[in-house]
Design a protein that fits this description.
alpha/beta; 21 helices; six-stranded mixed beta sheet
Length: 714
């Protein structure tokens, strides 16, 4: 077996230049000036063994491998696992099996947490902020989560007080980050890097002033804004340093002519020689105007001006053949242009040397302030992350959550009123926006066609039908918005069994609760109305979906058991456990017995237990646990027998009932079949279904009366 490639930790990290299309290493960066000014005009990266090793890793499919840094994976509990490039190569070759993921890390994928992170990142203004938000911080302590929530609250308040967006401008935070790194290694900054530093200092000064002015204007809200004031107060922007950068760097990142007398003289000389060359080539092309038109094309090749002529006419142009192009073209440097091209290259070298000297002096001015620039960068990125969380929470219309103590005897253990799944809401809004845009386009087309003379009636009717179809699509989307649910866990309840028909919203319910817990922990507001009350769960653990694995010879049932085993090993008395279709995938009787035993074990406190477990199931036996153990509660998803479809509403305290026979009757199944089915189903079961139906109707009446009372009180 071939020895796996070893990538040393001292190898250089591949970085991409921001203003040159060259892949380089930290040792030879084309966007920084080398110690030798003669290298400035055409700096190229050395393709070192480390560079080749990195390319090998990329070819093997490990796009996230990085030389010297490895690949990081967060498990959701503040821990990281590091994968070296060597381990990645071994995994690819099958020599090393990756160890199983933790139950907490797996839960993040099951709840689609990375999609939430990407949604929040889309509200960030800086590239570094977007990168950090790709993996939202999930703190390991309640105090840290509350600190994040206070910052988000301050951000939401700032947006509200400003009455508009909070802008950070067009900052190149990654360029500044790399500039600080390279300057500390003794390299010379480029003009683009110096420009980015100046823009950072300018933005930081404006942001600091804006936050303080807002707090001064709205003094009664100053306490809410205090976390942001504490964040931006230590910023030092050094206006004189910023002015020094603008004095020598232009708005496009180039060095100004006025930066030094030597640079002005060198550029004047360069422009003079370029003008003489253009006059020479114009004269040559005029003299040969009667020959092939290709001989009049003037190009630059390797920094030298030359003519492109037809190969069969190149003998008519005395000079040096620089290159034979594809087809019938040749690149000729006329004899009279040779000395001028030589002088032009010498002048360009003088310009590069003068630019290097300017940037060297500028680097010496910046170097003593690198710590302040680094702090300024970190603060602006932190502020961007906070404001991204605030913008996302505002866009959702979410509410700040309140944590309760898990060891207290509060009556309410968890309350989410009119809660919705954030990703379902995001998906619905995007679909509605696209449908409205489509309707607007088709309506405009119809308006234009109506004013066009001689338009065929058939074509107009076709467009009208398309508009009507688009209107129907918008109306349907507006009518079918995600249905909110109410979750209220009180008293001694530690386990909630959710029953009801398939596609009724059971799984969406437990995912909504799981995401609400994660969002609150990470400093996001929760998509529900006030008050949002929930415990600070030390970890969220879920078994959702099909864990079948042919490669590991695992059935669906075995896969669920493997995952639940990992959950039992990670859960504590302060954990949230979410189980989808507990006890499914095997004999119903044995599955129900196992499901009951599992739920009873999660109702315990301490290691292997939970603070709250929510489980969906089709086993009727699990509904009976409530009547023998006060730690259990029932809930069900409502089903409309009139429309023969689920309403996606969660009925709290009511077990799910069978709808099959009633649905069959409404669908005109022959009565003799229904009579036999009901006799097999049993009188007691039928009576139980009737009682549950009456409870559901009573719950609907109660909710309607409560809503009416709330409206009247308001």
């Amino acid at each position: 077996m071939a020895k796996p490639l070893l990538l040393h930790a001292t190898a250089s990290l591949p970085l991409r230049n921001f203003h040159k299309k060259t892949l380089v290493t930290e040792d030879t960066l084309s966007c920084s000036y080398s110690a030798s000014p003669s290298l400035y005009a055409g700096c190229r990266s050395n393709r070192t063994p480390a560079w080749k090793a990195a390319r090998s890793v990329e070819r093997l499919g490990f796009r996230d491998a990085r030389i010297g840094r490895g690949r990081y994976e967060h498990d959701g509990c503040g821990r990281e696992r590091v994968y070296s490039a060597q381990a990645a190569l071994q995994e690819k070759g099958g020599a090393l099996q990756e160890e199983p993921r933790s139950a907490a890390a797996e839960t993040l994928d099951l709840l689609e947490w990375p999609r939430v992170c990407r949604a929040v990142a889309s509200f960030a203004a800086t590239s570094v902020g977007k990168e950090q938000l790709q993996v939202l911080e999930i703190p390991a302590t309640r105090e840290a989560s509350e600190a994040l929530l206070e910052l988000t609250t301050a951000g939401v308040e700032l947006i509200s007080l400003l009455g508009g967006p909070f802008e950070l401008g067009a900052l190149s935070t990654q360029v500044v980050k790399d500039c600080v790194l390279r300057t500390r290694k003794g390299m010379v900054v480029s003009g683009v890097e110096a420009l980015s530093v100046a823009l950072l200092l300018q933005t930081a000064r404006n942001v600091r002033r804006q936050v303080f002015n807002t707090a001064q204007e709205f003094q009664d809200r100053g306490s809410v804004l205090q976390p942001l004031l504490d964040m931006v107060d230590p910023i030092v922007t050094h206006p004189d340093l910023e002015k020094g950068i603008w004095r020598v760097i232009d708005e496009d990142g180039s060095v100004k002519d006025s930066a030094s007398p030597e640079l002005r003289k060198a550029r004047t000389q360069e422009r003079s020689i370029e003008q003489r060359l253009r006059e020479l080539f114009n004269k040559l092309t005029r003299d040969k105007s009667g020959s092939d038109s290709q001989s009049q094309e003037i190009v630059q090749l390797d920094g030298r001006m030359c003519l492109v002529v037809a190969s069969d006419n190149r003998s008519n142009v005395p000079g040096l053949l620089l290159r034979s192009g594809s087809g019938a073209s040749a690149y000729i440097e006329p004899a009279g242009a040779v000395p001028l091209n030589n002088k032009l290259n010498e002048a360009r070298a003088e310009v590069a040397k003068a630019e290097y000297n300017v940037l060297l002096r500028l680097t010496d001015q910046l170097r003593p302030y690198m710590d302040d620039i680094q702090f300024c960068l970190n603060t602006i990125v932190r502020l961007d992350v906070v404001m991204a969380r605030a913008r996302y929470s505002t866009w959702l219309g979410a509410t700040k959550p309140t944590f309760i103590d898990t060891d207290s005897q509060n009556l309410v253990r968890l309350q989410l009123k009119r809660a919705r799944h954030p990703l379902l809401l995001q998906q619905h809004r995007e679909a509605l926006r696209e449908a409205k845009a489509k309707l607007k386009t088709k309506s405009k087309n119809l308006g234009r066609l109506k004013t066009r003379p001689g338009m065929m009636v058939g074509a107009l009717e076709e467009i009208r039908a398309a508009v009507a179809e688009a209107e129907a699509e918008v109306a349907e989307l507006e009518e079918n918005a995600p249905v909110p649910i109410d979750v209220r866990v009180i008293g001694e309840t530690k386990v909630v069994a959710i029953t009801g028909p398939n596609t009724g919203g059971k799984t969406a319910t437990i995912k909504t609760v799981g995401l609400a817990a994660l969002m609150a922990k990470s400093g996001l507001f929760v998509l529900a109305i006030e008050p949002v009350v929930l415990p600070w769960f030390d970890v969220v653990l879920a078994d959702i979906g099909d864990e079948q694995s042919l490669s590991q010879s695992l059935s669906t049932f075995s896969g669920h058991l493997h995952r639940i085993k990992r959950i039992k090993g990670a859960s504590t008395g302060n954990s949230l456990v979410l189980l989808d279709e507990v006890g499914a995938g095997t004999d119903p009787t044995e599955g129900a017995a196992l499901g009951m035993a599992l739920l009873e074990s999660f109702a315990e406190s301490g290691k292997g237990g939970s603070f709250l477990t929510m489980a969906t199931t089709h086993h009727g036996e699990l509904k009976t646990l409530k009547y023998s153990d006060p730690r259990f509660e029932n809930a069900s998803v409502e089903f409309s027998e009139e429309k023969l479809r689920p309403t996606y509403k969660l009925l709290w305290g009511i077990p799910g009932r069978s709808n099959a026979l009633n649905i069959a009757e409404r669908l005109d199944i022959p009565k003799d079949i229904l009579v036999v089915a009901r006799s097999l189903y049993g009188v007691a079961s039928a009576q139980l279904s009737e009682v549950i139906m009456e409870l559901e109707q009573a719950k609907r009446d109660y909710d309607q009366d409560t809503a009416t009372a709330d409206s009247q009180i308001t």
